[in-house]
From TrEMBL:
Domain of life: Bacteria
Species in which this protein is naturally found: Amycolatopsis panacis
Domain Lipid/polyisoprenoid-binding YceI-like span(s) in chain numbering: 13-182
Full protein name: Polyisoprenoid-binding protein
InterPro entries: Lipid/polyisoprenoid-bd_YceI, TTHA0802/YceI-like_sf
Amino acid sequence: MTTAPAYTELTGEYTIDGAHSRIGFVARHAMVTKVRGSFNEFEGSFAVDGANPALSSARITIQAKSIDTRNADRDGHLRTNDFLAAEEFPTITFVSTGITQTGESSFDVTGDLTIKGVTKSLTIPFEFGGAAKDPFGNDRVGFEGATSINRSDYGVTFNAPLEAGGVLVSDKITLEFEVSAIRNA
């Protein structure tokens, strides 16, 4: 597939704007509902090669302790060795290893996700949301993507059986990325 000509003007280095981005997750709880959360502290950057997206790259570092599900007790438990072991493994990282354009405005970003010291390759489908010059003169781009992982693949295995069957927390976790980034000067 050829690259849309408009992407060539996006070529450059970008820094993720944490104040206008979200890295979140969704897990099933007690087999009846979903719990949503996010990480409030993260940083990242990416390089866009608009003429050849395969030469683009991305990197994100998340502070595990910044997990936020809007419940202090649950967040405290998620930071323990039962889940993220945030004291021992303070960061969660994603480093791209390949980017493929899959449609006019869609891209698969393949990379290495490291959680709790375990690294696995995964692919995240992203949709290009657009580009604009913001009121402060910054060139800004947006991307949204989501993928699912099995938390047990990363050594996150805590669970509790339910009386009626099933478990307290799903193994499948959906990761969500809503990214706004500013081109570096």
